[in-house]
Design a protein that fits this description.
Blueprint: H1 6-27, E1 84-86, E2 90-93, E3 101-110, E4 116-123, E5 128-131, E6 137-139, E7 144-152, E8 158-168, E9 171-181, H2 200-212, H3 216-219, H4 221-227, H5 237-249, H6 270-279, H7 299-312
Parallel strand pairs: 2-9
Antiparallel strand pairs: 1-3, 3-7, 4-6, 4-8, 5-7, 8-9
Helix pairs in contact: 5-7, 6-7
């Protein structure tokens, strides 16, 4: 056996004890400060513990960014209906026998201090033509110009009245032209079956009123006599159309803004006609016939009238005849000899 020296053991034990004491010294918390003299140690229990979270300070006010609210745009200036002054609103001609056309000239003057722009000029039918410059037509302040209109008289006789509608920044103006063609008795008033006679001056006045307020045909007592009252006792679609629709759409003096329902440009359905009859079209001469908007027709009458229109007014589709088959030529027949059987 080895002999363990007593001195070596003592050195080892002393080194281990020193390392343990050093580790305890590092892990132990620092000593508490001494209690001040004269202070009761039990009073230390009443001292509140320090607050770890600092109280929030009042936020620093941040000025809100300045918001600029734009001023509302000024509404557009209303059209001045007196900007264009016309020499007449209706003109009449009596051409000689054999003349092919009747010509009219309306003179107008821009009496305002601003330029007036004529955007469109329309006629009530294709037999009426207008001589116009390049559109839009600019009319400087204080100037005047002619509007030249011509009616083709070929194949016509009697009394014919047509409308010319001028659409400009000064509003919409309707002009009436009338021609007494040799071969027919001149008439002083237009007569529509089932309605009182109407002179051209009255017709022009009514057209201008309808352009300003399309519902005037139901509000004005005189207009309502033709456009509203006949519908009060009718229920069938054909009767309603004749009474309240045909008076405008089938008139020989149909205004340029009133479409010809007999020549629609596209297919329609019953909802299409209900929409037009019930609500009309804002900004046009087509009034709203529904009772909710002041018209004379209830829902049942509108349905009957729409059913009649969808069955009566549809575009005509012209079917082109089938092309004849191309003539066939006698092709040469080539006879190929067959091999003989052995």
């Amino acid at each position: 056996m080895r002999t363990i020296h007593f001195a070596t053991v003592l050195v080892t034990l002393f080194a281990g004890a020193s390392l343990a004491a050093s580790a305890l010294a590092q892990a132990a918390p620092p000593p508490l400060p001494p209690v001040p003299s004269g202070l009761n140690p039990t009073a230390l229990l009443a001292i509140p513990a320090p607050t770890l979270v600092q109280p929030l300070t009042a936020p620093i006010p941040v000025p809100a960014p300045a918001i600029t609210i734009p001023a509302p745009a000024a509404p557009p200036a209303p059209a001045n209906p007196n900007a264009l002054i016309w020499d007449a609103e209706m003109k009449e001609a009596s051409p000689a026998v054999g003349e092919a056309a009747a010509n009219y000239t309306f003179w107008f003057t821009n009496t305002s201090s601003k330029e007036v722009v004529i955007n469109a000029v329309r006629t009530s039918c294709g037999c009426t033509s207008i001589k116009l410059p390049t559109m839009p037509w600019h009319i400087p302040p204080g100037t005047n110009s002619p509007l030249e209109v011509s009616i083709d008289l070929r194949g016509k006789s009697g009394v014919i009245s047509k409308a010319v509608t001028v659409d400009s920044t000064a509003g919409i103006k309707s002009l009436i032209i009338k021609v007494n063609i040799p071969g027919g008795a001149p008439q002083t008033a237009m007569q529509i079956p089932g309605h009182p006679a109407m002179h051209d001056a009255d017709r022009l006045k009514n057209m201008q009123s309808a352009l300003g307020d399309r519902q005037v045909v139901f509000k004005d007592a005189k207009c309502a006599t033709c456009h509203a009252d006949p519908a009060k006792t009718l229920a069938g679609g054909p009767q309603l159309y004749t009474a309240v629709c045909g008076i405008c759409h089938d008139s020989v003096q149909r205004a340029a803004l009133v479409p010809d329902l007999k020549a629609p440009k596209h297919e329609t359905d019953i909802d299409y006609w209900k929409q037009w009859i019930t609500y009309g079209k804002a900004g046009s001469m087509m009034p709203a016939f529904g009772k909710a908007d002041g018209g004379p027709l209830n829902d049942q009458q509108i349905a009957a009238l729409a059913d009649y229109c969808v069955k009566t007014f549809q575009p005509v589709h012209v079917v082109a005849p089938a092309a004849a088959p191309a003539p066939t030529t006698n092709a040469a027949i080539q006879i190929i000899p067959q091999p003989k059987a052995n």
